[in-house]
Amino acid sequence: MSIIVEAALILVLAGVAAIVIVLAVKLFKGLGGRDQQVEAARIVQETYQGLSRLEERVEALETILQDCKDGESEK
After folding, report:
1. What CA–CA distance (Å, rounded) separates 40 from 10?
2. What's the pLDDT tens digit per position in 7-49?
């Protein structure tokens, strides 16, 4: 079960990273006016912050799973 959870989390992280890359490319290509560039920059920053929070959650989940695994091995 934990392998499935870890694989799903990796896929989510990969998807978020892909979104960040696409938005960054659009930002640097200069598609649109100044307002659109500002909006794209804001979206990239929000996505990065969301990715950072997701990374923290993944680490917490890994800790919980490891603690459960260690607890089972002691029994």
Report:
1. 25
2. 777 878 888 888 888 877 777 776 567 777 788 788 888 888 8
Asked whether 65 and 8 are in contact (CB, 8 A), the reply is no
Q: Which residues contact 69 (CB under 8 A, 6 or more apart)?
A: 2
Whether this model's pTM surpasses 0.70: no
Q: Where are the domains of the chain?
A: 2-68
Q: For the chain, how are helix, strand and coil distributed in percent, rounded to 5?
A: 90, 0, 10
Contact present, 57 and 12 (Cβ < 8 Å): no
pLDDT on residue 13:
83
Helices marked H in 1-75: 2-29, 34-74
12: which 2 tokens?
A: 């989510």
State the Cα angle at 67 between 52 and 16, rounded to 5°.
20
